[in-house]
TrEMBL record:
SUPFAM superfamilies: Acyl-CoA N-acyltransferases (Nat). This is N-acetyltransferase domain-containing protein. GO terms for cellular component: cytoplasm. It comes from the Bacteria. GO terms for molecular function: acetyl-CoA binding; N-acetyltransferase activity. It comes from Marinagarivorans cellulosilyticus.
Length: 168
């Protein structure tokens, strides 16, 4: 597989809503400890917000969350990235966020996460007009720095040390 152009197609989950339960299961398994009290059914319900289409005209202060899914050559989901209004409940003044960047373990180190992040940033900047966005990561700071993200601080989130970063 080419490291610069992985063999994946990135889609908006609105185009494949049947993937939400699958993706919700991945996210729950990976990050339940950062969302205490949120059971899998609640996560599935919350992720349904990605299916809502904004009815506001472009250029307003509205924000429509987006979830992107990477599909492999056999059209199977292998990874995700999201654009959310909020991601850390202890950082309510920061918005919007790149969130839920995840690739199935057997598909890692193939450039898929890079493709997902670049795709999400391009949509955020070019289509949504976002000037600055944030993310937090427990252990992938160097990865995001290579993609142009800037570290702003290290802090604790639900007892886990995380790096807060931004892109502009």
């Amino acid at each position: 597989m080419n490291m610069n152009k992985p063999d994946v197609k990135i889609i908006d989950v609105c185009d494949a809503p049947k993937l939400i339960p699958i993706v919700a299961h991945w996210h729950h398994a990976e990050w339940a400890h950062l969302n205490p009290g949120q059971a899998l059914p609640a996560r599935i319900k919350k992720m349904s917000a990605y299916l809502k289409v904004s009815t506001n005209a472009q250029g307003t202060d509205s924000f429509t969350p987006k979830l992107f899914v990477a599909l492999n050559g056999e059209a199977l989901p292998v990874g995700t990235a999201a654009l959310d209004l909020h991601d850390m409940d202890n950082q309510p003044m920061l918005s919007p966020w790149l969130a839920s960047v995840f690739v199935l373990p057997e598909y890692r180190q193939q450039g898929i996460a890079t493709a997902l992040v670049k795709y999400a940033v391009k949509v955020a900047v070019d289509e949504m007009g976002i000037k600055r966005m944030h993310l937090f990561t427990p252990n992938h700071r160097p990865f995001y720095e290579r993609l142009g993200w800037v570290h702003s601080q290290r802090l604790s989130y639900y007892g886990e040390p995380v790096d807060l970063m931004y892109y502009q």
